[in-house]
Amino acid sequence: MKLFYTAALPSKTYIITKFAAYQISRRNDYKLVLDTLKKAIKGRNVKGILLHSDQGYQYTSHNYNQLLTRNKMKASISRKGNCWDNASMENFFSHLKTECFNLHSFKTSQEVRRAIKDYILFYSHERFQNKLNNLTPIEYRSQAF
Asked: Both ends of the chain: CA-CA distance in Å?
């Protein structure tokens, strides 16, 4: 069983304090990325938001960039082979893998979906982070805004 996930974190900072949207799919394709972006945009003022991604074909597609332009968002694409360009997201995915996927085995896609949802809630509301003055992302965000 292979599942792909993508997350959108429209933010004007480089610190993950809130997930705008995430999607899980059996296919790593345009639909996964566009559905995630549409979900992140829905009901939000995203004008001027910088949305970072890698150089995958989904993020360089005409449809993706057209959706960003229509919503007055800006694309930021990482340099080839440079994970530091998107360090906040890479950091989150690393924690997700080591603290969730590597500690459990899953039999169904539904179990994986539930684990990801639970981990995002844990990460946002309970997992303190040194870089956020030992606060959770939600606590840090409430102080900043």
From this structure: 41
pLDDT, tens digit, for every residue of 38-87?
Answer: 998 998 888 988 887 878 888 889 999 999 999 999 887 777 776 666 67
Q: Which two tokens stand for residue 112?
A: 């994986």
Task: Please write the tens of the pLDDT for every residue from 71-80.
Answer: 999 887 777 7
Q: What angle do CA 69, 25, 70 make, to 5 degrees?
A: 10
Is residue 90's pLDDT more than 70? yes
- Per the CB < 8 A criterion, the answer to whether 32 and 7 are in contact is no
Average pLDDT over residues 82-107: 82
According to the model, what pLDDT value does residue 7 have?
Answer: 65
Residue 85 CA to residue 27 CA, distance in Å, equals: 25
Distance CA 108, CA 54 (A): 28
Is 119 within 8 Å of 100 (Cβ atoms)? yes
Q: What is the largest CA-CA distance in the chain?
A: 42
Beta strands 50-53 and 4-8 are: unpaired
Sketch out the chain's domains with CATH numbers: 4-144 (3.30.420.10)
Pairing verdict, β 50-53 and 74-77 = parallel
